[in-house]
């Protein structure tokens, strides 16, 4: 019992200082959004697609998919925005990877605070990690959006992949190549800024 109480406190000292150390690499001139594709992707007037860094929103067919898309659309459609890049410029779909700013509003932070997204960091692109985690914690405590839904079935042990900021169910294929098994509550892992695997959905 004592280990279960102490270990998360030690783990947070190992994880959180690393989350906010990656500096912003580039802030682009102002651009304009043509349309919203879904809750975390937009199309610019110049034809570029932009995938928001730091978050993951519900996929088509999942609860709150439409609400996340409408939320982002209300923020950015026909608005002048700024793109802030980190280390990687594009993903394997050739989408730009960036944070979107509308004035002083960080779009990913707003979506997290409204409970329309989950934190989803992909090192080394970890800029704004501290403020994004704070937004998710606030939404979880208020049980807003996705955090008002019933949680998935709990495991007694989770596999933690610290270098990827992920946690998995013990049987997950993505956890077979590494990770550490720990007896720690799912809520504690979320509070530490780790994201559930999108395959096994712990």
Structure at a glance:
This protein is an alpha+beta fold and 202 residues long. The chain has helices spanning 2-19, 65-76, 107-113, 129-142, 186-191; strands spanning 26-27, 31-38, 41-44, 49-52, 55-56, 80-85, 96-102, 105-106, 118-119, 158-161, 166-168, 180-182, 195-196.
Question: Mind explaining what this structure looks like?
Answer:
It contains 5 helices and 13 strands. The chain is α+β, with helices and mostly antiparallel strands. The protein folds into 2 domains: 26-145, Beta Barrel (OB fold (Dihydrolipoamide Acetyltransferase, E2P)); 151-196, no CATH class. The strands form 3 sheets. Strands 2-3-4-7-6 form a 5-stranded mixed β-barrel. The protein has a 4-stranded mixed β-sheet with strand order 12-10-11-13. The chain is globular and about 50 Å long.
Which architecture name of the largest domain does CATH use?
A: Beta Barrel
CATH class of the largest domain: Mainly Beta
Strand arrangement in the largest pleated sheet:
2-3-4-7-6
Order of helices and strands: HEEEEEHEEEHEHEEEHE
Can you count the beta strands? Answer: 13
Mean pLDDT: 88
* Gyration radius, rounded: 17 Å
- What is the share of helical residues? 25-40%
Main sheet specs? 5 strands, mixed, barrel
Number of domains: 2
Supply the number of helical segments.
5
Oligomeric category: single chain
Structural class: alpha+beta
Pick out its properties:
202 residues, alpha+beta, OB fold (Dihydrolipoamide Acetyltransferase, E2P), five-stranded mixed beta barrel, four-stranded mixed sheet, 5 helices, disordered N terminus
């Amino acid at each position: 019992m004592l280990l279960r109480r102490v270990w998360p406190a030690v783990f947070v000292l190992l994880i959180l200082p690393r989350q906010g150390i990656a500096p912003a690499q580039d802030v682009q001139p102002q651009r304009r959004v043509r349309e919203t594709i879904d809750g975390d992707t937009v199309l610019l007037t110049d034809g570029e697609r932009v995938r928001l860094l730091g978050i993951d929103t519900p996929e088509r067919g999942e609860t709150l998919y439409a609400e996340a898309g409408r939320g982002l659309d209300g923020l950015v459609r026909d608005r002048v925005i700024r793109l802030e890049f980190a280390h990687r410029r594009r993903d394997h779909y050739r989408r730009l990877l960036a944070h979107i700013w509308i004035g002083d509003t960080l779009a990913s932070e707003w979506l997290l605070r409204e409970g329309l997204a989950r934190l989803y960091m992909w090192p080394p692109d970890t800029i704004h990690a501290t403020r994004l985690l704070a937004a998710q914690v606030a939404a979880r405590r208020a049980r807003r959006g996705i955090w008002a839904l019933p949680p998935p079935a709990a495991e007694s042990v989770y596999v933690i992949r610290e270098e990827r900021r992920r946690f998995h169910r013990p049987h997950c294929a993505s956890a077979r190549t590494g990770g550490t098994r720990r007896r720690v509550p799912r809520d504690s892992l979320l509070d530490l800024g780790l994201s559930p695997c999108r395959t096994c959905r712990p």
